[in-house]
Structure formats: C-alpha cells, structure tokens
Amino acid sequence: MERLQKVMAQAGVASRRASEKLITQGRVTVNGETIRELGTKVAAKDKIEVDGVPIHHENHVYYLLNKPRGVISSASDEKGRRTVVDIFKDDEIEERIYPVGRLDYDTTGILLMTNDGDVANKLMHPKFEVNKTYIAKVKGLISNEELKQLRLGVVVDGHKTKPAKTRLKETDRTKKTSIVQLTIHEGHYHQVKKMFEVVGHPVVKLHRESYGFLNCQGVQPGEYRELRPEEVKRLKEL
Ligand code: URA
Question: Is 73 in the pocket of ligand 1 (CB under 6 A)?
C-alpha cells in the first residue's frame, strides 16, 4: 500500500504537492468514492480517477535479464524485430516495463528492466557513474600499451573517454584474438565497440557481465529473475 498522492505522482498525474491539492479539492476518487484525506493509502488494484479520468498505476517491478543475442533493447522496433520486452510479454508479465539503458542487438548480458521511471532515469544519468563491466572478444593480439590507452581514455566521436579498468583475460595466438575485461561507467552509443576500434582491435563478441553490484550469475541468456528486495534497496541507494 502506498500513499494516494505518491501513487498519483508516480503515475505522472502531477507532482506530489499538486496531487495533494487535487485530493483536498475533492477531485480524486478511489473505487468511486471521493477522497479528501491526505493520509489515504491505496493498493495496486484500486481504481483511481482524477476528474473522472482513470489513472494508470502499477506496482514497481525490477528484473535482471541476461539479454540474448538478436533482440532489440527497446520497447518496440519499427522493423518488427523481437525486443527485450517481448521476452517478458511471452510470460504474460503485465507491467509496462522497459530497459534501463541499452545493449546492442548482438550484445549479450545484464540488462535491468523496470517500470520505475525514477530509478531508471537516475541509473542512466552519467552523474551516478554506475560501473559496467564488459567481456569483449576482439580481433588481434592486444598489447599492454593499447590496454593502457583504453584505461587512460581514447577519443571517441570527439570526446575523450573517462578512465576505465582493463584486464587481459586470454589471448589466442593461432586465431589471433584477445579477450579483455573492460569496466566503464559511461554509456555512449556503441562505446565499447568504438573504444576497441580506436586502438585497432574491432570487437567480435560482446557480453556485459555486471552492472553496478549486480551480475547475471545463474541467469542464462534469454532468462531473467526478479531483483530481491535488498537489491532494489541498494539500487535506489546507488
Ligand atoms: N558498448 C557497445 O559498443 N555495445 C553495447 O552493447 C554496450 C556497450
């Protein structure tokens, strides 16, 4: 149960303060009954109307998806390709969730999905500097000097990338490929691919293994799990 004015604000009716005013003015009904008390609490199933117009309100839900290859990180796709939201629709999850940020069509790994706009916007804001760790399989044998360049920052689309962390995990001398762990907190379009491109090692495979304190351990590509209450709490504290 949540306070009526909070639910109204979260549903985008008005600010919390302005919603309080609507309530005291007698313009809000819950299940057909006019409510003027500010302490009133409502549940997800309650029907709320403002001036006779129903508002959409939902419980906030938070999922951790291990995004498989070949799906789009958005709610819909103009070319009709399968999206991360379709994965949840298949399971008849009714909340209107969307991804927090994006992963490329061919990238796999952790992607948070929620209907909590507040949390999603905060996490995506560069100011919050959420660390994201990627495992990139790249062409060629990457050198220590090139790894250092990635750590210090390279120029991508006219901007120098912020300091990053790198760890060389593996090199394959016969196939001439390297596997590198890269941690960044920025999230520009195709950032990881572009960073490796700049140092001369195009990405052939990309996986995001962690997002802040969360990772997709135990969750197979294409599968998801709900975040535990303590994880949601930590996410809000980030
Ligand atoms: N950087 C990329 O280039 N692609 C992704 O999917 C995520 C980060």
Answer: no
Residue 9 pLDDT level (bands cut at 50, 70, 90): confident
Over residues 95-147, the pLDDT tens digits come to 889 999 999 999 999 999 999 888 998 898 888 889 999 999 999 999 999 99
pLDDT of residue 127: 84
Report which protein residue has its CA nearest ligand 1's atom 3.
Answer: 190
Ligand 1 centre to CA of 7 (Å) is 35
Block residue for tokens 């120098």: 160
28-30/48-50 β-pairing: antiparallel
Ligand 1 atom with the smallest distance to the CA of 195 is 3
Q: Give DSSP secondary structure letters for the chain.
A: -EEHHHHHHHTTSS-HHHHHHHHHTT-EEETTEE---TT-EE-TT--EEETTEE-------EEEEEEPTT-BSSS--TT---BHHHHHHHTT--S--EESS---TT-EEEEEEES-HHHHHHHHSGGG---EEEEEEEES---HHHHHHHHH--EETTEEPPP-EEEEEEEETTTTEEEEEEEES---TTHHHHHHHHTT--EEEEEEEEETTEE-TT--TT-EEEPPHHHHHHHHH-
CA of 114 to the centre of ligand 1 (A): 20
Whether 77 is a known active-site residue: answer no
